[in-house]
Amino acid sequence: MAHASGLMRSVFLGSGAMTPERIVTNAELETMVDTSDAWIQERTGIAQRAVAGPLETTASLGTEAARRALADATLKPEDIDLIVCATSTPDRTFPATATLIHAELGIPVAIAFDVQAVCSGFVYALSVADALVQTGQAKTALVIGAETFSRILDWSDRTTAVLFGDGAGAMILGSVPAEEAGGRGVLAHALRADGRHADLLYVDGGASQGGRIGKLKMQGQAVFRHAVGNISEAIAACCAKAGVEVADIDWFVPHQANRRILEGVARRMGLDDHKVITTVTQHGNTSAASVPLAFEVARQDGRIKKGDLVLLEAMGGGFTWGASLIRL
Ligand code: ACO
Fold first, then answer.
1. Residue-wise pLDDT tens digits, 185-237
2. Which one of 60, 250, 261, 271 has the fewest CB atoms closer than 10 angstroms to its CB?
3. CA 221 to ligand 1 centroid distance, Å
4. In the sheet where 140-148 sits, what is the strand order?
5. Looking at residues 277-304, what average pLDDT do you find?
């Protein structure tokens, strides 16, 4: 039930992350395709990525990230009444990975579904969960970004195989009456999609077309050309909606696709480099998992703290892109 006097506010309660144990370094990739550590580091900033083992799946990584988020929030599985999982690499075509995670965690009957917006998935999922909390349809939401892109890579294609990694991150949002939130909580979102660019970054398979999983295909340069402008516009729109200045933001948590994109956005928006969380070096591009993974790294090392104003942003296949603002 929504609070009698109006909308509820989604406030941050906890977060967690999980990456596979197996690390694939650039040096190891040099033994698989015609590439070099120097090329990968210079063009992308990536030094290594985690890759799921045979028994690890998107759901198992997402479940562990969710367990850690529950522990961080000192909540129990039965406290959760909504699970939104952002993924483009679901364990199965259906049911939704969110329902597999639901069962694994032992959560009672709840709302659970997946959101598919590729690298922007976590920002999209956060917005959807926030809307359900604000309107009183859920009280405590588990928002997960989880991916195993290693399973959709063509490991013989050096133009894509070096860029991606696996992992999962989770965030828990709780419901409080807006007037009691004291400025905390999810403040605004700016989501965008432009399907005219679908052929620049896609997987050449699917249940309804070809009947096989397919492999990731990307025209990297063309994607790059759109990234900085799109992301910058979404950041500006999100700040305008929330009525905050870009300079007021304590931390930027970008989707970790390529260090040059992060630097390009920082330059365009006049961001202080020290405020931009950069984990692409250790994780590569983990698609929907990358924003919550980067967020968790910066929370664990003590940079992101309670009361901080944090901007999350991403862009990915579709194209989809967007930004969200949250005060912890
Ligand atoms: N190792 C060595 N050489 C390589 C590799 C590799 N792994 N990959 C490509 N090359 C070669 C190319 O074949 C090309 O050779 P040529 O000049 O003989 O033809 C040369 O390097 C330059 O290739 P470019 O594609 O021009 O390299 P660029 O500097 O654009 O970097 C990259 C490529 C890293 C993919 C970049 O375009 C990029 O990051 N794009 C953004 C894509 C992205 O991150 N997508 C993810 C989701 S969308 C998003 O989040 C924004």
1. 999 999 999 999 999 999 999 999 988 999 999 999 999 999 999 999 999 99
2. 250
3. 6
4. 8-18, 166-177, 140-148, 82-86, 111-115
5. 98
> How far is 5 from 3, CA to CA, in rounded Å?
6
Domain ranges, ordered by start, for the chain = 8-180, 185-327
Residue that is written with structure tokens 């967020």 in the block:
295
Q: What is the CA(162)–ligand 1 centre distance, in A?
A: 10
* Matching fold, domains 8-180 and 185-327: yes
Cβ of 160 closer than 6 Å to ligand 1, yes or no, is: no
Q: Is 245 helix (H, G, I), strand (E, B) or coil?
A: coil
Q: Which residues are catalytic?
A: 119, 255, 285
Domain 185-327 part of CATH 3.40.47.10:
yes
Q: pLDDT of 47-83, one tens digit each?
A: 999 999 999 999 999 999 999 999 999 999 999 999 9
List the beta bridge partners of residue 111. Answer: 82
SS3 147: strand
Q: What is the pTM of this model?
A: 0.96
Cα(166)–Cα(290) distance, rounded to whole angstroms? 9
CB half-sphere exposure, 243, CA atoms < 13 A? 1
Q: Is the dihedral of CA 126, 132, 134, 138 positive or negative?
A: negative
Cα(168)–Cα(150) distance, rounded to whole angstroms? Answer: 13
Residues 6+ apart with CB under 8 A from 126: 143, 171, 173, 186, 189, 312, 324
Calpha distance 298→50 (Å, rounded): 18
How far apart are the CA of 39 and the centre of ligand 1, in A?
A: 9
DSSP assignment of 48-94: EEE---TT--HHHHHHHHHHHHHHHTT--GGG--EEEEE-SS-SSSS
pLDDT tier at 2, thresholds 50, 70, 90: very low
Nearest to 129 by CA among 75, 187, 82: 82
* Atom in ligand 1 nearest the alpha carbon of residue 221: 37
**CATH annotation of 8-180:** 3.40.47.10
